[in-house]
Design goal:
about 475 residues; alpha+beta; PmbA/TldD fold; 2 domains; six-stranded mixed β-sheet; 24 strands; about 40% strand
């Protein structure tokens, strides 16, 4: 079986500082990064997969002649790090000859110093994976036993533990630790040759207790199984442009995929729909949208981090304030080009990856409306829940799948219907928001965001009433 994870190594930042002092000259950024993973999955009463891995080393960036050079080493030794600094410097010099644009001087920023530990690290590291296996087997049996229509089920648990030491020549010296567990359950129901799928997943930054704070594993499995069974008998919504109530999961998907990526400064520079729109209205005045390194409103958001991979302390960045676009998401280079402070959004997946501009925890801030009031105030529309899949482009055009739909007629919620696709242009949809719920939930902490590299993120918000194009069938 997969045993207990190794305890934390000694603080590596003193060694990194010694290596930096031995190779002076220009801007140097050193990032020691150890990542350990464990995972186990169960299907049809048996262990389907069990994995463990460790990947560690030092990533080095040097700014030389207005150009970044990058190198890495898998050895946490002063000599190896000094050699990697030399290799990165040589790479920068070689590439600078062909580079037309130079990296400008970085704006002044307070860089992080000290140690930052996310909650739940030591307790989760000490927990044997066998305890997770016992839970997975029990929950998977429970999902199958809930209904004769449930033909199969699967459960999975995974965790990522990370230690990072970051030292830069302009003052950062920080060591961080975090652990991110996640759990998922899938149930498949069948009737007369038709199959439906129910799924629940949760991922957090924190320990086991944080992971199951809202619902127990058994409750998540029961919900997934009921969803699969009920969908077998559900009808179809009517298609067309309509008013909808989006659940926190769908609000999170919209916020991350259709808005968040368009305001990442590298995408903005490439011509996203947010380019040149700072200070303009892009949403209803009820909408305030933020990206934060902290877990706002509730603990445990899956993208929580205290310091980014350039040594910049993370913060809350207000992207949209009362409907107006106020900020993009920046690393140190894009901030220098824009003449603003970095927002703490530089992140790298492994030690041998260069940092990219990435989201952390992205959300729409809660408002004042209660869900039952929002339903009662809807004359003709749908309540939609369950984010199943989605895609969006640089223009903010999106198409997302939903798992559940309920017709609302004259303020009354009807029976369950099959989930459908919704589509639209993100900023146009946000302009139609006329009610924002008061209850907030993080709902996208499981899985990964992809952008050349994976990243652990989270997204969420309150219930939101707006207009979208709904895929469906005519009555």
């Amino acid at each position: 079986m997969l045993g207990i994870m190794n305890r934390a190594a000694p603080d590596p930042t003193d060694l990194l500082q010694d290596a930096l002092n031995a190779a002076p000259g220009g801007f140097v950024e050193l990032r020691w990064h150890k990542k350990q993973t464990r995972g186990i999955s169960v299907e049809k009463g048996r262990v389907d997969n069990a994995t463990a891995s460790e990947h560690s080393g030092v990533g080095v960036r040097v700014l030389e002649q207005g150009t970044f050079g990058f190198a890495s080493t898998d050895r946490l030794e002063k000599g190896a790090v000094v050699r990697a600094i030399g290799e990165a410097r040589a790479a920068a010099r070689a590439s600078s000859r062909a580079r037309r644009e130079r990296v400008p001087d970085f704006p002044a920023v307070t860089l992080a110093r000290g140690r930052f530990d996310a909650p739940g690290v030591d307790a989760t590291l000490a927990r044997p994976i066998e305890s997770a296996l016992e839970m997975l087997l029990e929950v998977e049996r429970g999902a199958r036993a809930g209904s004769s229509r449930v033909t199969s089920a699967s459960t999975a648990y995974a965790e990522i533990y990370e230690e990072k030491g970051i030292v830069t020549s302009d003052g950062a010296k920080v060591w961080t630790r975090a652990i991110r567990p996640e759990f998922r359950v899938i149930a498949i129901a069948a009737k007369a040759g038709e199959m439906q799928r129910g799924a629940e997943a949760v991922g957090v930054t924190g320990g086991w207790e944080c992971l199951f704070e809202s619902k127990s594993p058994a409750q998540l499995a029961e919900k997934a199984a009921k969803q699969a069974v009920y969908l077998l008998d559900a009808g179809y919504p009517e298609g067309g442009r309509t008013q909808v109530l989006l659940s926190p999961a769908l609000v999170g998907l919209l916020t991350h995929e259709a808005v968040g990526h368009t305001v990442e400064a590298d995408f903005v520079a490439s011509g996203s729909c947010a380019a040149g729109r700072l200070g303009t209205r892009v949403a209803s005045d009820l909408v305030t949208l933020c990206d934060s390194g902290a877990s706002e409103y509730h603990d445990g958001a899956g993208g929580t981090l205290a310091v980014d991979d350039e040594g910049v302390a993370t913060q809350r960045t207000t992207v949209i304030e009362n409907g107006f676009l106020r900020s993009y998401l920046h690393d140190r280079e894009s901030a220098a080009r824009s003449g603003v402070a970095p927002t703490g959004n530089a992140r790298a997946w492994e030690y041998d990856d260069e940092p990219l501009i990435r989201m952390r925890n992205t959300y729409i801030a809660p408002g004042t409306s209660k869900l039952d009031e929002m339903i009662a105030g809807t004359d003709d529309g749908y309540l939609l829940d369950g984010a199943s899949n989605g895609q969006a482009d640089a223009n903010g055009e999106f198409m997302f799948g939903t798992r559940e739909a309920y017709r609302i007629v004259r303020g009354k919620k009807g029976p369950l219907l099959r989930g459908v696709n919704i589509s639209g242009s993100a900023f146009d949809v946000l302009q139609t928001v006329d009610a924002v719920g008061s209850e907030f939930r993080w709902d996208l902490g499981s899985g990964h965001c992809g952008k050349g590299q994976p990243a652990k993120v989270d997204a969420g918000g309150p219930w939101l009433r707006c207009e979208v194009v709904l895929g469906g069938r005519k009555a």
